[in-house]
Amino acid sequence: MILMSEIEMIRHLARTTRKWRERALKGIMDAGQSDLAYRPSTGMSSLGWLIAHQAAVYDFSLNHLIQSSPPLRPDLFKAHLPGTKGDWSGATLEEMNQYYDDCETAFLTWVENAQQSDFERVVDGENIPKFFQGMTVLEIISNLFVHLNHHNGHLSSIKGDLMTRHDTHI
Length: 170
Hints:
The longest helix has 30 residues. This protein has a single domain, classed as Four Helix Bundle (Hemerythrin (Met), subunit A). It is mostly helical. It has six helices and no strands. Helix content is 63%, strand content 0%.
């Protein structure tokens, strides 16, 4: 049996995560919901916050945790971090999707150029949140995709909320 390399698996996870994200966003837009400030009846974060937050997850994982560098888009990054109110920042859908694309591309470029030792490196330091202290980069990457797909579930929930509110079949 042939096992997939870490890099191939990460590429696969990124493609699959993107497909789930795009499917949920298409369903939301097909339902006529283009208001990025929209918050579902459950009270979870706004549609726009979720879209930009997914990009911020890539940005945080790569730039803060893995590379110890500043965020790619500090303005969008700060407005869409965990612990914020979940409000839409006013950025356009195009800006937020470009932020996601840029962060995903930067992340995958890093992955393509990484050595085995890069994946095995343990992150630590006073700027690293306690949750991530002592994790390897590969464990951080696993958490990245869990987090992104957690929010794909939120996007799917918004789609379901819209179906209920509009009695629409998406």
